[in-house]
Description:
The chain is an alpha/beta fold. The chain has two domains: 3-118, Rossmann fold (3-Layer(aba) Sandwich), CATH 3.40.50; 127-219, Arc Repressor Mutant, subunit A. The protein contains eight helices and twelve strands. Helix 2 packs parallel to helix 3. The longest helix has 14 residues, at 105-118. The model has no long low-confidence stretch (mean pLDDT 87).
Amino acid sequence: MAYLLAVDDEKDIVELISRFAEHEGHTVDAAGSGAQALDLCRRNAYDLVILDIMMPEMDGFTVCKKIRETKQTPVIMLSALGSEYDKLMGFELGIDDYVVKPFSPRELMARVKAVLARNTPGKSGSELVIQGIRIDTLAHTVFVDGEQKDLTAKEYELLVYLVQNKGIALTREKILGAVWGYDYFGDDRTVDWQIKLLRGKLGPYRKCITTLRGTGYRFDEKA
């Protein structure tokens, strides 16, 4: 499995992450400060870093920026704030995902799995297959029960994002940021409208896209 680094000045949080990650088969190193995290990153080749933002002496933004100077290790940021500024700052630094405290350890592990899958060359190949849906990520084509579907560019990007993050609750804000970009100024209804159009092209698998009332959507493999 993967070699992870969990960084948080709260010992209980690091222990919680380590326990669940090791249960998933991962190897985990722990750091209680930004300086310690950077030292470990210099000495080890991690597959992913789980990084808290609010730490004394050196915050997570600074740590991420320094990591990015020499490596492109995937980063999932943790924050108790959850402000739009924090999210924008994180994604501008090139983080791969953002999780707000308090968080579900199982959801965090699902996000770890999704980020690792997106950042492991050759592991998932050029196809994504869910039930009767087949996505060729090289040709940008989608087949439903063997029949090619004519998706718009945004419908295609939305479907790929949902499938790559299957089983994870995705807010409308997160979907907007990932598919339309964090400088997009439209509203949440854009997501709802595109979901409606996408469902219409998935035929019997439209129910795989589950609506989470008041939150967003989740792609369920066995809907």
